[in-house]
Amino acid sequence: METQKISPYQRVAQDEVRANLELVYTALKEKGYNPITQIVGYVLSGDPTYITSHRNARALIGRLERDELLEEMVREFLRDVL
Questions:
Q1: Is the pLDDT reported for residue 8 higher than 90?
Q2: Please, which contacts does 31-34 make with residues 24 or more away whose CB atoms are closer than 8 Å?
Q3: Taking residues 48-71, what's their average pLDDT?
Q4: Nearest in space to 68 (alpha carbons), one of 38, 43, 35, 34
Q5: How many CA atoms lie within 13 A of 21 on its CB side?
Q6: Mind giving me the DSSP string for 36-48?
């Protein structure tokens, strides 16, 4: 298995994904939604109505590709597990 090197450009993108995901999570929680189920619904369907417009969360998540979101979530999960 080859080691994948992450360029500074990719690192900035990962940081942006993480920051936007955290902001979306907080906005959903503030509005009384279950952030996990709402984000999963969005990732699976692509339907932006799963994400509240509170704190501009819908626009923030819309700037990201769903596969980028999924990659970051898996990366974080594996970082915690391994």
A1: no
A2: none
A3: 94
A4: 43
A5: 23
A6: HHHHHHHHHH--G
Half-sphere exposure of 62 (CA within 13 A, CB side): 11
Please give the Cα distance from 81 to 59 (Å, whole number).
31
User: Do residues 60 and 24 touch, judged by C-beta distance below 8 A?
Assistant: yes
The backbone region for 32, taken as left when phi is positive above 0, alpha when psi lies in -120 to 50, beta otherwise, is: left
For the chain, state the CA radius of gyration. 13
Cα separation of 41 and 6, whole Å? 29
Burial of 12 (0-12, 13-18, 19+ CB in 10 A): exposed
Instruction: Quote the pTM value.
Output: 0.82
**pLDDT at residue 12 greater than cutoff 60:** no
pLDDT digits (tens, 9 = 90+) for 30-47: 999 999 999 999 999 999
